[in-house]
Amino acid sequence: MLYRAPRGTADILPQKQAHWRHVEQVAVSLCQGYGYQRLDCPVFEDTGLFTRSVGEDTDIVAKEMYTFADKGGNSLTLRPEGTAPVCRAYLEHGMPNLPQPVKLYYLAAIYRYERPQAGRLREHHQFGYEAIGDADPAIDAEVIDMAWQFFASLKLSRLSLQLNSIGCKKCRPAYLAVLKDYYAGYTDNICPECKIRLKRNPLRLLDCKKSSCLQIASQAPRSIDHLCPECGGHFNQLKEYLGLLQIPFAVNHRLVRGLDYYTRTVFEIQPEGGSAQSTIGGGGRYDDLIEELGGKPTPALGFAAGMERIILNLKQQKIPIPPLPQPRVFITYTGEELKKEALKLAASLRKSGVSAIEATGSRSLKAQLRQANSLGIPCAVIVGEEELKKGTVILRDMTTATQKPVPISKLPKILG
Ligand code: HAM
To answer: Which end of the chain is more exposed for a tag (fewer CB within 10 A), N or C?
Structure first.
């Protein structure tokens, strides 16, 4: 073998497809139920879209982007997240002129040059959705409710919803000053990366996973104590609405998220007992992003969950998944001269809406039936010389191994 899939990528093999299709189908019907429309954006975008929106000092932009120059000399980047492309498309296609909020969802491959491990890939897939053009905390509650109902529809349990508010551009600078003051007393105790964060992106200090930093972060000033009255009011209303919707949540003062565009509400859904690295989905408000990308000030928020992590949790929790549709019938023949009849019969069954596959080659009938069995196909049709003269074939139930002659003309009805 000369090649393997690149490190941090995974083939989605046929035996994994039932999980993938199930999660996608639950996601799509959820979006229909909440009035979200699908949007597919290109896999790559102008690099500037991400540096500008996600933020130069985030891990994603600083370390993880797959950036390349195309033959025309343009700097392009494989999308490292799905929100900025949606906002770009919202502006590019005149969606500010539509009734607001505009509600969009996506299922998309995402690229981040990370250190691969269980549930962390360099190519992963997200189901995400964005509600653009509404500042009401009721829409925050709806977006969070939708995430919560998504996992409930998947029958995932033992999840916790972590919530925080990180303020807006009006109140955050004062909070960051207080935070920096606090950390100034610990410069010798924090990790080298946090020393850089202290200078460049102090909010991310709260997010450090190193045990020494965790302890310092746990005593740090809390953003919710430094919110302006508008942000404070927004957060209180959101908590009230979540209460009304009976969605349990925990306020987590250290939750800041890894992308710089967030304002006010941030939230994550984590498996109970899991670490922040096992976060199954996260999102929040980004009220300045559309303006940052050249639009008018437009409040917005959204959520995204990683497909691979969802499937990991479905497997860990041993949740049964509906099987994928299978061909209904396998057409076999008793001698090679009947192969043409089998081929014709399979084609005519498919035309009448019965999914069918036919045996090929010159295997014995026994071997053909073994093949039907190993494919898990529930019925087999045996095309035999004598039966054919009478316009019949033998229909075999593969589970009970019982068989009976049936008129060919009645097959579509019997199998339909
Ligand atoms: P994010 O938290 O970076 O947010 O990613 C969302 C989810 O994608 C994570 O919670 C995780 O389940 C999954 N994920 C992230 N990185 C990886 C990886 N390397 N391997 C496997 N799964 C991963 C965003 O991307 C935001 N755009 C979410 C958002 C939407 N905010 C507002 N709207």
So the answer is: N
Are 226 and 174 spatial neighbours (Cβ–Cβ below 8 Å)? yes
The mean pLDDT value of the chain amounts to 96
**304 CB under 6 A from ligand 1?**
yes
- Protein residue whose Cα sits closest to atom 20 of ligand 1: 120
Mean pLDDT confidence for 128-139: 98
List, in order, residues 6 or more apart from 280 with CB less than 8 Å away.
151, 156, 159, 269, 270, 271, 305, 306, 309, 310, 313
Residue 207 CA to ligand 1 center (angstroms) comes to 15
Q: What is 14-171+227-316's CATH superfamily?
A: Bira Bifunctional Protein; Domain 2 (3.30.930.10)
Say yes or no: CB of residue 197 within 6 Å of ligand 1: no
12-64: per-residue pLDDT in tens? 999 999 999 999 999 999 999 999 999 999 999 999 999 999 999 899 999 99
Helix (H) or strand (E) holding 393: strand 392-397
261-274 pLDDT, tens digit each = 999 999 999 998 77
Q: What is the number of the ligand 1 atom nearest to the C-alpha of 269?
A: 10
The per-residue pLDDT for 276 is: 56
Residues 107 and 27 sit within 8 Å (Cβ to Cβ): yes
**DSSP-derived 3-state class of residue 197:** helix
Alpha-carbon torsion (106, 148, 285, 209), positive or negative: negative
pTM of the complete model beyond 0.90: yes
Query: How would residue 212 be classed by pLDDT, with cut points 50, 70 and 90?
Result: confident
Strand-pair category, 67-69 with 75-78: antiparallel
| Ligand 1 center to 280 CA (angstroms) | 8
Domain chopping of the chain, boundaries: 14-171+227-316, 329-415
